[in-house]
């Protein structure tokens, strides 16, 4: 019998841009059940969410392939409902398909995996000269990204380039990052894909950590 894991996107499911690459790492013996915080909402309803100056900003993908930004507080209750839905589907563990930082407010009978906590545990230990390069989607996420990664005690360089727009913007960001001479680069959004990772690695000549495949490998280690 296949093992079953649940995934929660902060946007809308299914994440056809993410889950297939995770599935390629997991193999055929693990079934993925998807749900999303914004499932069933229209773009108008999502854009009506209020964003205040001090809000923690998130960005994610809708079913039509476009992206939206919103405050984390707008979806916390919706995320709890996603957890409950997946528990009722009989999943063994639940994975957040987002690298954002979430408050410890969720309740679950299953193990909850947050990519952010794994990234912040692993990446700093790969920076031999104490310098980390971070890709983040939006310019108004740069400060919150810098603040969080600076908790590692490393020198941080943050560049914004959305995975949901032209890949040429990723290329330009990679060229800018090349000048920073970082030790390792982390693409701090689940939306970045293998093609983007490989391009950034080729341009910068630096090792690049991609959250979706890193999480896939950890899940595989846990469930194999």
If strands are numbered along the chain, what order do they take across the biggest sheet? 2-1-5-6
Average the pLDDT over all residues and give the rounded result: 97
Broad structural category: alpha/beta
Computed CA radius of gyration, to the nearest angstrom? 17 Å
Using the coordinates shown, work out and report the CATH topology of the largest domain. Answer: Rossmann fold
The number of domains is: 2
Helix content: 25-40%
CATH class category label of the largest domain: Alpha Beta
What is the number of beta strands?
10
Description:
- With 224 residues, this protein is an alpha/beta fold.
- The protein has two domains: 3-116 and 213-223, Rossmann fold (3-Layer(aba) Sandwich); 118-209, Rossmann fold, CATH 3.40.50.1860.
- 35% of the residues lie in helices and 22% in strands.
- The chain has eight helices and ten strands.
- It has helices spanning 19-26, 43-47, 76-88, 115-122, 142-150, 167-178, 194-204, 211-223; strands spanning 3-9, 30-36, 57-61, 67-71, 93-97, 111-113, 131-136, 155-160, 184-187, 208-209.
- The strands form three sheets. It has a four-stranded parallel beta sheet. The chain has a four-stranded parallel beta sheet with strand order 8-7-9-10, sandwiched between helices.
- A hairpin with a 5-residue loop joins β3 (57-61) and β4.
- α1 packs parallel to α8 and α6 (167-178) runs parallel beside α7 (194-204).
- The longest helix is centred in the middle third of the chain and has 13 residues, at 76-88.
- The radius of gyration is 17 Å and the shape is globular.
- The mean pLDDT is 97.
